[in-house]
Inverse folding.
């Protein structure tokens, strides 16, 4: 199935179901049977609704740059600039304290916007399933394609929320009257991830292997399934689905073309969200990626707004010369010892003095899955294969192959993930999944056994705003008293 990619519709379609407010924090609009009869009349409108779901996910991840705060700032290897003083507590210098977030509570402690994505996906699944295949130009294949995209996005969103806040509220269907949504307890992780895997199995069975990476594909569904299984420490199936992904024709970019990965539809990308600049679209942004860039990329940009690679991490983890570091970073204009990330440095001046950072947000790519397979191989007792995958990524980076075994191999896989995936919103989740907080000195002083036992690596919830709307909602244990 090919999406009718009409840029102007993405912004419009995201308003189809979310242009009115409601009292419940799940951000769900009441189902209107009269309106439904008009809207859900053909595949073209399902296409519009599906594009809207992608737009909602994009906007949810971009909110206050939360995608990079959750994955990079919180991991301590990217340091905010002085303008972002309200993020200082999140990293090592602040003791990885997530309970002080002035002016950021609405994006870091509140999951409401993600339920907008969930509800849009629920609507698409329910309504499209009820439509006759004659209403779709492409028949059953097109119908199942839209449903598969919605179920993939729903799985991605729930899995993302689970990794950020811990146990979510699992909503499997639309509510007819969101003014009277019953109070709900948080759903155990096992149940939520089982639901995600059901969605992904459907997507794997029904999606095609698209050439356009900004929509779900068979490869993306297999890759996400591998990530979910690894999160559950089901490494047998993580290996299985990683191998299925790698059969589908992806290839590593040469290190000299490294930054092509984020310029759209690269051969290494598996799943990405479109944020490229276009005169007719609203997918691009001036300030989402720009925090990584200095005045060397954006003329006149102040140094206080620039996020930097943490100096100790730079010294210890990039202690060998490598072409990758040269390609993905650049020295600060007035201090060559400080480096910034330049993965997102494709800048367009669209009006005099106005600059758009025109890159796509790559959510899953081949290097990530190769290293995830290395992790799975190690856990499945296949150390030689794990080492081979590790060295595949090292060789692309311009590093020598290494010979390492035992626990040191596992640590080296983690270290390589940090080097390869810095600035891509995933490192904090690697720390949690791979249980590395007590293994590395830079974290062990702040992540005590008590904090880990009480899941203090998840973010707190904004109980002041969320609890009055759901009396059964509970705070994450660690943040009740910290």
């Amino acid at each position: 199935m090919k999406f009718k990619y009409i840029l102007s519709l993405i912004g419009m379609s995201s308003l189809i179901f979310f242009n009115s407010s409601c009292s419940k924090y799940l951000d769900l609009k009441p189902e209107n049977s009269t309106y439904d009869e008009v809207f859900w009349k053909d595949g073209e409108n399902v296409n519009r609704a599906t594009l809207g779901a992608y737009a909602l996910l994009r906007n949810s991840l971009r909110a206050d740059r939360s995608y990079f705060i959750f994955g990079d700032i919180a991991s301590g290897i990217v340091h905010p600039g002085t303008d972002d003083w309200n993020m200082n507590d999140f990293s090592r210098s602040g003791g990885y304290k997530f309970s002080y977030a002035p002016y950021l509570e609405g994006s870091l402690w509140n999951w409401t916007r993600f339920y907008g994505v969930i509800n849009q996906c629920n609507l698409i699944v329910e309504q499209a399933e009820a439509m006759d295949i004659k209403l779709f130009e492409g028949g059953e294949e097109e119908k199942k394609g839209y449903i598969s995209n919605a179920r993939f996005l729903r799985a991605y969103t729930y899995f993302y929320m689970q990794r950020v806040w811990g146990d979510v509220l699992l909503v499997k269907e639309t509510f007819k009257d969101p003014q009277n949504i019953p109070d709900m307890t948080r759903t155990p992780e096992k149940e939520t991830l089982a639901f995600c895997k059901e969605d992904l199995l459907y997507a794997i069975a029904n999606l095609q292997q698209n050439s356009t990476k900004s929509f779900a594909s068979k490869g993306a569904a297999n890759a996400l399934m591998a990530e979910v299984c690894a999160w559950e420490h089901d490494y047998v199936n993580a290996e299985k689905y990683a191998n299925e992904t790698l059969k589908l024709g992806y290839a590593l970019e040469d290190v000299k073309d490294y930054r092509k990965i984020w310029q759209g539809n690269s051969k290494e990308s598996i799943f990405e969200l479109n944020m490229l600049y276009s005169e007719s679209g609203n997918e691009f942004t001036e300030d989402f990626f720009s925090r990584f860039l200095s005045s060397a990329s954006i003329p006149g940009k102040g140094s206080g707004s620039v996020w930097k690679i943490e100096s100790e991490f730079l010294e210890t983890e990039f202690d060998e010369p490598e072409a990758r570091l040269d390609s993905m970073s650049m020295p600060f204009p007035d201090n060559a010892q400080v480096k910034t990330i330049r993965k997102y440095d494709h800048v367009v001046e669209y009006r005099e003095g106005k600059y758009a950072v025109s890159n796509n947000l790559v959510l899953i790519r081949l290097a990530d899955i190769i290293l995830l397979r290395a992790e799975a191989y190690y856990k499945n007792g296949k150390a030689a294969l794990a080492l081979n995958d590790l060295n595949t990524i090292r060789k692309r980076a311009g590093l020598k192959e290494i010979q390492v075994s035992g626990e040191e191999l596992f640590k080296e896989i983690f270290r390589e993930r940090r080097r390869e995936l810095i600035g891509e919103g995933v490192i904090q989740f690697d720390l949690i999944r791979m249980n590395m907080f007590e293994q590395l000195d830079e974290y062990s002083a702040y992540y005590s056994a008590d904090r880990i036992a009480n899941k203090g690596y998840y973010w707190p919830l904004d109980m002041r705003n969320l609890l009055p709307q759901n009396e059964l909602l509970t705070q994450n244990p660690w943040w009740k008293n910290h």
